[in-house]
Amino acid sequence: MNLAVFGDSWPVGVELSQGESPFGNLLHKKMKTKNFHNMAEQGSTIDSLVIQLNKFANKDIKNCLCIFFITNPARYLYFENNKPKILRPTGDKSDLTKFYFTQVQSDELDNHKANMTILALQQMCRHLGYKDYYMEGWTNIPWTYAGIDKQKLLPKSAAELFGADTNAHTLELAKFQKNEYITPNKYHPNQKGHTLIADYLYSFIK
């Protein structure tokens, strides 16, 4: 069986030091899968997962286990000149970002995007014959739409595993917090954190 991981900067392994490995690589070694494909992209959105999976489907790889790391659904995906662009609640202070997060974004819209995305991913995986599992990063999304297979959703988010703090204002992980699974990083797990995620995924899948 092959292994593929999808998501944002966490499965990419941002802020890890040279020689360290993100959780997908660690899970690949633990499960002794044939090949490992990391399709994650830094800063991506929850609905970017559908694009990532569609790109992976074009590789025509059979017999695959897919892990989807669910990021903050408040991030907004749009397109400019046929290229994906992303609005995030942190960092960018542009007028477009201010407009979206003050006039458009809401919990209801975020949850709708998240539920629609999981429905699409699960249907695509059924069509492709892939085994699929889903893990939230630091959110607690209510999965309420009919048709979602909740048995494929891990019961704890990464932040819950770590005992980490989130920032209610930015809807992101609290930066530079003192946590054994994050320190000294700003927003991402250290090697100990990635190892914990890999072990948790391994136990759940097995």
> Radius of gyration, Cα only, in angstroms?
16 Å
Give the averaged pLDDT, no decimals.
96
How many strands?
8
Number of helices: 7
Task: Please tell me about this protein's structure.
The protein is globular. Helix content is 36%, strand content 17%. The protein has seven helices and eight strands, in the order βααβαβββααβαββα. With 206 residues, it is α/β, with parallel strands linked by helices. The strands form three sheets. It has a four-stranded parallel beta sheet with strand order 2-1-3-6, sandwiched between helices. The mean pLDDT is 96. β4 and β5 form a beta hairpin.
TL;DR of this structure?
This protein is 36% helix and 17% strand. It contains 7 helices and 8 strands.
Keywords:
about 210 residues, alpha/beta, two-stranded antiparallel sheet, 7 helices
Question: What topology does this entry show?
Answer:
Layout: E1 2-6, H1 9-12, H2 23-31, E2 36-38, H3 48-57, E3 64-70, E4 76-80, E5 83-87, H4 95-104, H5 107-128, E6 131-136, H6 158-162, E7 166-167, E8 172-173, H7 191-205
Parallel strand pairs: 1-2, 1-3, 3-6
Antiparallel strand pairs: 4-5, 7-8
